[in-house]
Amino acid sequence: MTRFTRPLAAAIALLGLTAGAASADIERLKAEGSVAETIDRLEQAVEGAGATIFARVDHAGGAASVDMELADAELLIFGNPQLGTPAMQADPLAGLALPLRVLAYADAEGQTWIAYEEPEEMFDDLDIDDDAPFVEKMEDALEKLTKAASGM
């Protein structure tokens, strides 16, 4: 990925997350170790599941690059065409929510957390049935991947 595509991927991911996350259900779970260690474990789990990693966004690093402070926070953007394609076939606007994104961040006490938006909620305003098989598969995959990343 070039130095130009990383910021573009980050901006697209942030736009997608902020557009739907305000009223959506966000799943959170505690993680052991640092944010970087947690995202490393998530990367390993994602690659082990055969999915593609599109970007790893270091939000705290971005803040530091403009002389601002931000607690550790990293976003991993990844996907699998076997799951994402059926969603976009059902409604092309699913491309605004995909690929999937998982955030690891440190709270004010230094506890590391993993967070992601539930797929059912991501697609809530689209022409996608909550009971679509790919929605359940995405939910199962996110649950398994984040549990592996949590180290618990």
UniProtKB/TrEMBL annotation:
<keyword id="KW-0732">Signal</keyword>
<protein>
    <submittedName>
        <fullName>Camphor resistance protein CrcB</fullName>
    </submittedName>
</protein>
<dbReference type="Pfam" id="PF03625">
    <property type="entry name" value="DUF302"/>
</dbReference>
<dbReference type="InterPro" id="IPR035923">
    <property type="entry name" value="TT1751-like_sf"/>
</dbReference>
<dbReference type="InterPro" id="IPR005180">
    <property type="entry name" value="DUF302"/>
</dbReference>
<feature type="signal peptide">
    <location>
        <begin position="1"/>
        <end position="24"/>
    </location>
</feature>
<feature type="domain" description="DUF302">
    <location>
        <begin position="57"/>
        <end position="119"/>
    </location>
</feature>
